[in-house]
Amino acid sequence: MSITEIDRSLVARFSAAVPRYTSYPTAPHFHAGVDAETYENWLSECPADASVSLYLHIPFCDRLCWFCACHTKQVLRYDPVAAYLEALSAEIATVSGLLGWRSISAIHLGGGSPTMLSPSDVAGLGTTLRSAFSLEAGCEISVEVDPNDLDEARLDAWQGFGVTRASFGVQDFDATVQQTINRLQSFEDTSKAVGGFRERGVASVNLDVLYGLPHQTLDTLASTLEQVISLMPDRVALFGYAHVPWMKKHQRLIDDKVLPDALQRFTQARLGASMLAEAGYVRVGLDHFALPTDKMAKAQAEGSLRRNFQGYTTDNAEMLIGLGASAIGRLPQGYVQNIPATGEYSRAVLAGKLPVTRGYALSDADRATAWVIERIMCESGFCLADLRSLYPGEADRLAAEATASAERDTDRLVNWDGAVFRVTERGRPFIRTIAAGFDTFLRQDEKRHSIAV
């Protein structure tokens, strides 16, 4: 796809390192002042009728993908996984004891590789959850899948668990790219795994594709997307690879010299978006695509799309309880994050403690800014009247920020008429950078993030 001088100029100026905004304030600003006692108080204060969803983190893989930026580690034996599940069950019991019998609207299992769990442990975890909470009729249960883990027994176990959505990490099907990131996964294995879930009644399938990977080209990405589209997933996430070797040391195994530069990444993202649109997918937010019949596309059309630590979501629960090592939860009062080290986490929960290591208590100013950034990320803008009705004391401040953003904009990336702030189609690839203009913390932030393109 041709690149104009305007494109080159925009990419050069708007590909700065900024957060992905799966929360605001972002995780680097969490601190130890929010501890287990704080979390216990927050749980006890939550209204009995508040809607609740769960995130369960399984921080193990049987191989380490070099591109991965998640909290996970490779294990060669299953014993550490089985021991961890005992600790996870203990945390579930402690949290449910403080929350009381709650109705759960959604459950997401991430990692790591949740699908490496043995069939008996999948069943046991399901029993534990249903003993501790009341799962709503229609509760959405999603799991992140590594096709290399699966066999018929595991597929049957996840069917018994009640999975309604399976999410597959594809990245790129090109052999050279896969070898460079240590992620060998054939199209045939992926297709078989997708079919295995569909045969067991899992109606919704999501495939994750990365651009900006080492040795990746427009041709390899196009070939991968053609194969992805042939599987007819309900959703496709087209993420930019986040190269953060200062945070994830195993990413140093990837040679910086074979990574696409910012302009190449921009071209890859544009190609991917074009191919998915031509295949009938609706663009959702910055980097997700969904069939028009999918709940995510409908949520965007209705203005109810949300963004949390798993990315774009239709989960509108007021509380997201994070369970497991490193898991992050969101409550009306603020954010909490569990201890990342599995050994330390396990010792804490087996002693009956909440394993919180840090968090952040939200002010009204934080909530208002978070709302603006989320609406920009989800809907490409916000309405001042809506902001004023929700956060009347903060509306003038954020309106002034919108004015400043519009005044800085000489490239027609945003429109602001004093009532509605809107990112233009030209500005869509740079939404993260535009949202960052409202981020009070980023102005003094010395922490490093992945590039925005």
Question: What attributes characterize this protein structure?
Answer:
single chain, 453 residues, alpha/beta, Arc Repressor Mutant, subunit A, 2 domains, nine-stranded mixed β-sheet, 15 helices, globular
How would you portray this structure in words?
With 453 residues, the chain is an alpha/beta fold. It has two domains: 1-22 and 363-441, Arc Repressor Mutant, subunit A (Orthogonal Bundle), CATH 1.10.10; 31-323, pyruvate-formate lyase- activating enzyme (Alpha-Beta Horseshoe), CATH 3.80.30.20. It has helices at 5-14, 36-45, 79-99, 119-132, 152-161, 175-181, 187-199, 218-230, 262-278, 295-302, 342-350, 364-379, 384-390, 395-408, 431-436, and strands spanning 52-58, 60-61, 73-74, 103-111, 134-145, 165-171, 204-211, 235-240, 282-284, 288-290, 306-308, 311-313, 319-323, 328-331, 334-338, 356-361, 381-383, 414-416, 420-423. The strands form five sheets. It has a nine-stranded mixed sheet with strand order 9-10-8-7-6-5-4-1-13, with helices on both faces. β14 (328-331) and β15 (334-338) form a beta hairpin. α3 crosses α11 and α4 packs parallel to α5 (152-161). The mean pLDDT is 93.
The average pLDDT is 93
For the record, the count of structural domains works out to 2
- Share in helix: 25-40%
Shape: globular
